[in-house]
Amino acid sequence: MYHLECIQCHKKYSAKEVIYTCTCGGLLDVIYDYSQINITKNDLKGPLSVWKYRALLPISIDPVSLKEGGTPLYRVDRIAKSIGLKDVYVKHEGMNPTGSFKDRGMTVGVTKAIELGMKTVACASTGNTSASLAVYGARAGVPAVVLLPSGKVALGKLAQALMHGAKVLSIRGNFDDALKLVRDLCDREGFYLLNSVNPYRLEGQKTIAFEIADQLGWKAPDRLVLPVGNAGNITAIYKGFKELKNLGLIDSVPKMTGIQAQGASPVVTAIRNNSAAITPEGHPETIATAIRIGNPVNSIKALKAIRESGGTAETVTDEEIISAQQELAYLEGIGVEPASASSIAGLRKLVNLGVIDKDEIVACVTTGHLLKDSEHVLSVCPRPMEIDATIEAVRKAVFSK
Ligand code: F0G
């Protein structure tokens, strides 16, 4: 019913093979025999979840699951008004079991590891992938090994990886170094690699597109805005919308719009320069540690998604990210980590630049929960006032400016 195929040379691989990239070096996609898939809107009634769309997922055993997906799509009218748009939605992926969208990829990826008989799972991570892998590894009863850039992982994410029993290694280097090392480790030791270069991870993440269309009454938004780090999610969501269109469930695919932090923006540079490939950045830096990546492994797929869909890519500064995070929090009650807020910051910038039309229906993906990175919150919000335990002191403090 499906196979793996190189996006460059189109060489095909059986789904039984443990393989992450083509022998030519190209990225792989999971390709289905769509003529065998017959889904109507009627078949897709009922509550949202990743496994509701099982007919479009490459798994034949019982899933390793913690009830992932089914995240809310909020209308954010106050944010929309402040930016000057009419219809803005936020798909809050921070509401997944471990607090990020990675769970959609891990429920599929870890299940695939079991299906293939793999004994250990591994990844490099800026934090969220490692938290999710630790949790789904524990759920599956399979050991997990995670490689993290030393000193650059938010505490909430590290806490998850540690408590759920992963072997946590702090690498003296950045994420790109850690990814290179874990790929080598997996090749040598036969561990199953669960970074987004693994096409099965992306299959799980494409359900973000399915849910957004489902939640909008089987319609795609005009534009999808999201943060880009290793560039897996933008390609996964694009694939999801394209599949829905091919199956006749929606009429159009949104303009895929990727946002990167100014200090880590190789995809934006390639889009601006109309380059066929990115130029890796050796020293990526941003407060949004989740997307502190200089050499995104899925960049070729991401450039294609952006160009084919008529989308774009833009940078935002750390200051713009922080103010968007605060806006989401106090204007809408939506708590997200810094990387996630870059989608709203980018939306505002692109509207100001006149790139996004005021009539567009826009969905922004907020990829991770506020609680992931509480030390950042303490560095940008005022400290609580410490006062005496008397009613006079409380009343004085309540009315103080
Ligand atoms: N937002 C958050 C909160 C993330 O954790 C990530 C990636 C992204 C956005 C970017 O997604 O890589 O698919 O373009 N985090 C990875 C990790 C790299 O290791 O947790 P992407």
Q: Architecture of the largest domain, CATH level 2?
A: 3-Layer(aba) Sandwich
- Summing up helix and strand content along with how strands pair, one would put the structural category as alpha/beta
- CATH level-3 fold name of the largest domain: Rossmann fold
Mean pLDDT across the residues is: 97
Provide the β-strand percentage band.
Answer: 15-25%
SSE layout and pairing:
Layout: E1 2-6, E2 12-13, E3 28-32, E4 73-75, H1 77-83, E5 87-92, H2 102-115, E6 121-124, H3 128-140, E7 144-149, H4 155-163, E8 167-171, H5 175-189, E9 192-193, H6 199-205, H7 207-215, E10 223-227, H8 232-246, E11 255-261, H9 266-272, H10 299-308, E12 312-316, H11 318-332, H12 338-352, E13 361-366, H13 374-380, H14 391-398
Parallel strand pairs: 5-13, 6-7, 6-9, 7-8, 10-11, 10-13, 11-12
Antiparallel strand pairs: 1-2, 1-3, 4-5
Helix pairs in contact: 2-3, 2-6, 3-4, 6-8, 7-8, 8-10, 11-12
Domain Tryptophan synthase beta chain-like PALP: 64-368
Modified residues (N6-(pyridoxal phosphate)lysine): 102
GO molecular function: L-serine ammonia-lyase activity; pyridoxal phosphate binding; threonine deaminase activity; threonine synthase activity
